[in-house]
Amino acid sequence: MPRTSTHHRHLQKQLARAETYDQWFAAAEALDEAEGLLDWREGPGSDLLHEKLIREHLYAMRVHREKGDVAALNRVLQESLYRHLGELSNPELYTVARTGTTKLATEFLDEVENAMNFICDHPMPGVSEAHKLQLFQEAERVFGRPALLLSGGAAFGIYHIGVARALWEQGLLPEVIAGSSMGAIVAGGVCSRNDQELERLFYEPGYIHLEAFRWLDPGQIWRHRHLMDPQQLLHHIRSNVGDMSFREAAEHSGRTLNISVSPTRTRQKPRLLNALAAPDVLVSSAVLASCAVPGIYPPVTLRAREPNGERGAEKPYMGTERWIDGSVHGDLPLMRMARLNNVNRTIVSQANPHVLPFINHHESSGARASLKQATTSVLKAQVSTSLQVSRNVWSRSLLRPLLDQAHSVATQPYLGDINIQFPAHPGLYRKVLSNPDERDLAMYIRMGERATWPRIPMIRDQTRISRIFTDCIARLQAKLQQQ
Q1: Closest Cα to residue 327, out of 246, 402, 220, 413?
Q2: Active site: which residues (predicted)?
Q3: Which of 116, 328, 345, 458 has the greatest CB tally within 10 Å of its CB?
């Protein structure tokens, strides 16, 4: 027994000290084997899945594919996806073993991929290649696609770079990315770069501009009513993001950038800026607005490219409106993301310092975790009710805007379908409003990677069908261009 315990601790140390995903996975697989969890993965199934029905559909897809019956294969594929997607997206399937879910779920996804590729690459009776492409595109719109949402978090938000790099290395970085506050800077940096430039961002982080924060002196703080220099922040944003419009960034990178901003006027709803909703708005001005934490930075007037499209030709966008930190009213714009970008699966990277203490138990189990969940739920409800009563009492007071902001912060959602969270360490809170040095940058990036690695199996499985749609559509478009 002592020998086994020593071996187990050794594997846990290897897991914690892994420098790459391959190293992490090897240690995780060894731990799963030592704890008997590989047997669970290899077992006949799980009570979370309808094993008998899934195996029937697996067999039917395989038989129709081997017979070359594309029409029948298409019918059973549609039924299978409709019947089983809810089961396969259950996060409980990924809470047992570190390295993935049951073999049955993997076999089902393997056969779905084989079926979709077969339909894509083989003729369908009475269906032209152009019509087939249209059918795939329509099916993809119905099915949806994943999105990565990066929260605010001041300096903690630098860890989002590590999250994005870990996903990029595994070919899992979504094309749709959203950000608020510091998450908007990282999202803007990723979505303003093509693949070659993005590789440099991830693997040569030394050229990243790090000087975002500059405190004003007491006299300036008294005069301007905010603590930090917005021009220094804007310089930092432009150094890392550039000065493209949302449309230009989308055309250059092939990715869809979404920036969440909040209005200063009461009873105005937050906005999600992207190439569809605000194509000519400059990304740098949207990111600046999304970083404008009340009291830290002043509100921002958005800037847009002039209709002639020339660089340097700018104008105010909605000039009578001013905007602040997107985290205030919509740190994670889940519903707006789904509507504008056809999102079916949200991957949330959460680093907000005021949120982390209340969500670090959300995937834990046991009596202690359940007690913490109940306590935080009650506390959140009480705070929400108190703030709502205060808003009604002080509805005509100068305090109403502050109460509205506090109510939004307390009641908005901070989690998505798949969650990656900053591993909060109390000692790091002193750095939350400090510029990182190169050692801090490397630390934050590594923390982001290590927080992401345990989610890779779940992300790979639950975004797999969307990625197959993308690949099939690209092949069909290439085939049509060659005709």
Answers
A1: 413
A2: 181, 325
A3: 328
Whether 396 has a pLDDT exceeding 50, the answer reads yes
Residue 394 has pLDDT above 60, yes or no: no
Of the residues 192, 262, 280, 325, only one is catalytic, namely 325
- Token pair 């914690």 is at which residue? 16
Specify whether 262 is catalytic: no
Interatomic CA distance for residues 338 and 335, integer angstroms:
5
- List pLDDT tens digits, range 172-219: 999 999 998 899 999 999 999 999 999 999 999 888 999 999 999 999
Selected catalytic residue, list 180, 181, 253, 260: 181
Which of 188, 198, 191 minimizes the C-alpha distance to 157?
A: 188
101-120 tens-digit pLDDT: 999 999 999 999 999 999 99
